[in-house]
Amino acid sequence: MDLKDKITTLKGIGPKKGKVLSEHGIKTIEDLIEWFPRRYEDRRRETPICDVKQGKDYLVCGKVISRRQSGNPYNKRAPLSLLINDDSGMIEIVFFNGKYLSGAFNVNSKYSFYGKVSENMGRMQMIHPEFHQYGEKGDIRGIIPVYPTIEGISQNEMRKIQAQVSPAIESVREWLPENIVTEYKLADPVFSLKNIHFPKESRYVLMSRFRLVFDELLTLETGLIYVKNDNAAKKNGIAINTGRSEEFINNIGFKLTEGQTRVWSEVAKDLESTGVMNRLIQGDVGSGKTAIAEIAMYVTVCNGYQAVMMAPTEILAKQHYVTLTEAFREYNLKIGLLCGSMKPADKKEVLDRLGTGEIDILVGTHAIIQPGVKFNRLGLVITDEQHRFGVEQRHRLSEKGDDPNIMVMTATPIPRTLAVILYGELDISVIDTMPAGRKPIRTIAAHQEDRGLVYDKVRKELVKGKQAYVVAPLIEESEKIDAKSASELFAELQKLFKDYKVGLIHGSLPQEQKDAVMDAFVKGEIDVLVSTVVIEIGINVQNATVMVIENCERFGLAQLHQLRGRVGRGNDQSFCYLIINNETDIAAERVKIMCESTDGFQIAEEDLRLRGPGEIFGTRQHGLPEMRISDIVRHADVLEKAKNAANSLLASDPDLRSTDNAELRNRIEKMFGGDIRLEI
Length: 680
Ligand code: ADP
Ligand code: MG
Fold this sequence. Notes:
CATH topology of the domain at 442-597: Rossmann fold
Strand order of the largest sheet: 11-12-10-13-14-9-15
Largest sheet: 7 strands, parallel
Structural class: alpha/beta
Radius of gyration: 30 Å
Number of helices: 22
Bound molecules: adenosine-5'-diphosphate, magnesium ion
Distance between the termini: 31 Å
Number of strands: 21
CATH class of the domain at 442-597: Alpha Beta
Helix content: 25-40%
CATH superfamily of the domain at 442-597: P-loop containing nucleotide triphosphate hydrolases
Strand content: 15-25%
CATH architecture of the domain at 442-597: 3-Layer(aba) Sandwich
């Protein structure tokens, strides 16, 4: 068995299972070995039956004293019920649809069972436990790995597969330089891989996990720092004269906030230098990131270059298109729009004008990464709401120019310490002030039975000529089903607000319809916009002063904050009503935080505390490669160490050309896929 062998060479993995596994990135024996358990069940000690409590998992061992197939014995679905006892007590084991198991147990023989204990009319039960003949080979006792769920492959199957490939681990060689192994006290890779799957002792798990997390984070950090150094080393970047920024700023219609001024000066410094700008602009919703983008685009165009701005959705791209057209009208700049849904003829026209250099600024969606899109002289690449884009997409966009400057804008508030690590390849600027005159949004929680009162308040705003958003409950992660709930709400509100125009938007509508609805809302032709979360990001309608979120308990904190950020964008007092339908503790806490704070960074910290890191900082979401074993938040301490090690490795071998670092280079390429080319 070789590490590079295909998994389909294994016993028990045919084409069907092979396909399921490969969908999870598992194609070779090596991939399997790197499919790490998520946690372990400690089944070393058996619990005397009298000590088990309901709701927890236990290992119990005992003799079968009775075996009963209840119901009609010819019915395959008839449950099988066993009574088990040890020296201390008795417990019932139940298998529904259990007929197929009736031959598996002999009365008076001893078995081990592992599962959750429940109580049924005063009697302790285990339903569908794992079981095995007591003391036989393959007993379910020990420290048992629990793998990430893969539909179609049971835990037991995965354990058997892992046991099967275990011998192949022997051929793994130490791949890190000796000084790093010694300095960070790393366990041997063979030991670590063996013990992460089938630990002999629980302390071995800790040693092994440390080693493997270190490996993964070292690979990540080395890759990120490599890209960053590589960018910094590019001396042939474009130097932009930013002198004309003043005329634009003086004419922008408001006074830049302190935060905007500082961030602009940081951006200007990058632009002026001959290095390549690679900067992340973080700022809470409504902090005015677009203004910074506009100034940067303006000076870039004044220097004879083109600029491009990529947004994650068509709605957002179109909105930017309108805003920029407006902002640059009197400067006579030509703005172009490119979206996937445009007619081929329209696309072609834009592409032609882009190629000749007639268009100064292109705005669009992913469509602008396509190979056919060619610029004349691209000098600045901006991506908005960056967490929807990956490292790779950014690379592809910047390759359309000759090392253009890069600016990435995000409203996802990430605690700064973490951002430094996450965006290792980017410099970071934070707009930490809000435009003056903004009144903090008033957030009010209401129970389901008070919905009527909430909509009375909405009417009050409508009477004043203001507009409202109503977000329909998030039913599940399916736009189709969410759309249905939005449609029902729409029908209800149409009746309620007969004298007003109510609109509906959701993700399953055809693009043109979505655009038409958004357009009408922006123009004020729609008073109440019912929507699913499609409006979550970026939309800017200053006349909208009310946000109603139905079934707010369905949304996470960060999401609620983003949604709320759609209002309060002008100078009028805005309101956010959170309607609670099902008040769990966590929902109550979220609502409390929302009512007390409008600070995105604080909310992000609270979100982290309530939900745990994995969910929010899902690495995919941030455009980083998927991690197998590490969690950048939970393993922040290891990350710090890995970063130091990465720096020292790159200091002595900047291009990772030495044969000692060949395996590290392989790992980086595997982790980042096409995103990183380590030139050899
Ligand atoms: P975001 O950071 O969420 O992208 P925008 O750039 O869309 O925010 O700005 C939100 C609104 O605030 C826009 O209407 C913009 O014109 C306005 N704005 C931006 N900066 C200022 C400022 N310094 N003073 C007043 N209004 C501002
Ligand atoms: Mg924005």
